[in-house]
Design goal:
Helix 11 packs across helix 12. The protein is globular and about 105 Å long. The chain is built from 13 helices and ten strands. By secondary structure, it is an alpha/beta fold. Bound molecules: zinc ion (ZN).
């Protein structure tokens, strides 16, 4: 009779990470499927885990109403940026891991039957960093909201601007803020939800510009990291610095909302905040509410004031006219550099600048001085 020997298999991990997650707050081991059912909030201590874009949309919108827009937008590599690996490789790896094209998803859907435009960020995609695609999606969501008069909801989860896109990433701050300003001036509500973490360029631009700014409990929210802030002011930071509750107590946020109440809270707010209906017929093209101030026209106005379109500095005495005029007339006939016959008789300018005889003015200047010559008094009268 064969003897059954005990088999020595390699010891299995008691908590395989694909099945279990350890709560960083209370250290309880949580079964992943269970955690997903409770919207990834620790049932033991209430710690809010980060949510993927898909889960966030599922949490906020009516089931099956989300229609994604601009799904094909994808980052390019304008700088040829390489750190530990090339930027395109990094993007490709993130796409493979998350199934997203970039760190933001935007589209339309309904919330308790009310149509909204919504943009959500996913921290899992390169730390939710904002490059050209994220900025563009936020901007397009805002512009769509403006044209359609739909409330806009943006859920942020980001470490800041994407350094691999350099200045182009920083430009997204101005672009998204400009679009939101048009939204504000038109009277279309914008609700910003700050989830863990909302930092850097996202915090410094659209995330805190909501008509109502909501945050999830204990979310990290701030511009620079705590260590940098402490070093800059050379002081110890208070407990809970850069957390939702701290910012709420100091008036930076309007509400801190538990994830299970987030949807009903936003829905309630949207009941109060109704978009201002658009004026005129529905089929008229929407005016984007551009401000009267245009940087380009401002600059050209300024330039006209500094440099008058008339090349003459508007002199008050006729002699200056004549010096220029005779010099111009001469230089048209005599070679440049040769002293004209009357040169010694022409006095220098009072401020010490030499007379313009030796210079060759442009044809336009010659033309203008010749027309003024007709109005000017005779040279003898002034030379005395
Ligand atoms: Zn916990």
């Amino acid at each position: 009779m064969p003897i059954k020997l005990p088999s020595f298999r390699p010891r299995r991990d008691a908590y395989p990470p694909d099945l279990w997650t350890k709560c960083p707050s209370c250290e309880e081991m949580l079964f992943n499927k269970q955690l997903d059912k409770v919207q990834r909030v620790c049932p033991n201590c209430g710690h809010h885990f980060r949510l993927s874009a898909d889960a966030r949309l599922g949490l906020l919108l009516d089931h099956g109403t989300f229609v994604e827009r601009d799904a094909g937008l994808q980052s390019v590599d304008p700088l040829g940026f390489v750190d530990q690996k090339p930027y395109p490789d990094r993007v490709a790896a993130a796409q493979l891991a998350t199934g997203l094209r970039d760190a933001a998803v935007w589209g339309t859907g309904t919330m308790d039957g009310r149509p909204v435009a919504i943009c959500v960020m996913d921290f899992g995609f390169m730390g939710g960093s904002m490059g050209a695609v994220v900025g563009e999606k936020v901007t397009r969501a805002a512009e769509y909201s403006l044209v359609q008069r739909l409330p806009l909801i943006v859920v942020s989860a980001s470490g800041g601007a994407r350094m691999q896109e350099g200045t182009l990433a920083l430009m997204q701050l101005a672009k998204s803020v400009a679009a939101l300003e048009r939204l504000r001036s038109t009277g279309v509500p914008f609700i910003s939800v700050l989830s863990d973490p909302t930092t850097g360029g996202v915090f410094a631009s659209f995330a805190v510009l909501g008509d109502v700014n909501l945050a999830e409990p204990n979310a990290l929210i701030g511009f620079a990291g705590a260590r940098v802030s402490a070093g800059t002011i050379a002081q110890e930071l208070p407990a809970g610095f850069q957390r939702s509750e701290f910012l709420y107590q100091h008036g930076f946020l309007d509400r801190v909302v538990h994830r299970s109440e987030l949807r009903s809270e936003i829905s309630l707010l949207l009941g109060y905040l109704r978009p201002v209906p658009r004026e005129g017929a529905r089929d008229e093209p929407e005016q984007l509410g551009l401000p009267a101030f245009r940087p380009l026209s401002f600059l050209s106005n300024l330039a006209e004031r500094v440099m008058p379109s008339d090349p003459e500095p508007a002199p008050t005495n006729g002699a200056a006219h004549l010096d220029l005029a005779t010099g111009g007339a001469r230089s048209a006939t005599t070679p440049v550099g040769l002293p004209p016959p009357e040169a010694p008789s022409v006095p220098a300018e009072p401020d010490g600048t030499p007379p313009a005889n030796g210079t060759s003015p442009s044809p336009a200047a010659v033309g203008s001085t010749e027309t003024e010559l007709a109005d000017a008094p005779a040279p003898e009268a002034h030379r005395g």
